[in-house]
Amino acid sequence: MTRPSRLFRDGVTTFALLALLGLLALKMNNPPELIQTGSFYVVDGDTLARDGDRFRLLGIDAPEYRQQCRRADVDWACGEEARRALDKLMKTGAAECRGSEHDRYGRLLVTCKAGGVDINGAMVRSGMAVSYGGYAAEEAAARQAKAGLWAGEFERPRDYRREEKMGRGGDPLAGLSDYLRQFIGWDR
């Protein structure tokens, strides 16, 4: 074999080995995807529980359980309604939730399906949750249809939580730290 062809062969082999090592390093860096199937207890419009573990629906934010919204100048329990909507969706078939990352509270961030329905997207599409980085088209459709929350006035769930925290004597800078966590990505 001639020297240039041997150099070429050795270079290609070295490149292939380095690429393989790089792929293995990336694979080892990614946490494994966890799959949970079966029945879940619905805590609120975006949180599930099972066997002592909590799961947060990824990419959505639903009203807090005690949160009130306003429609046609009448208050309504939008947080309770969001919980009922999620409970109904979770019972449309065998539920399967998948995720690989946890939020700052230790909850596994999941995308759930039941009966072939993307539960996270369905909550936003029905207007019972807002998009939190992933369901913009579903939110636009709900907004246009004036579905759920969009049929009246409501406070975004994150704003409601911040005000509740401040009302209980919480840190006045809590909203800023929440924003920074979200902006920088610390809440994943």
Automatic annotation (TrEMBL):
Matches recorded under Pfam families: SNase
Domain TNase-like, first and last residues per copy: 42-152
The organism of origin for this protein: Rhizobium leucaenae
Residue ranges crossing the lipid bilayer per the database entry: none
The keyword Nuclease appears for this protein: yes
Keyword annotations from UniProtKB, A to Z: Endonuclease, Hydrolase, Nuclease
InterPro entries: SNase_OB-fold_sf, Staphylococal_nuclease_OB-fold
Name by which UniProt lists this protein: Endonuclease YncB(Thermonuclease family)
Sample GO molecular function, one term: endonuclease activity
Domain of life: Bacteria
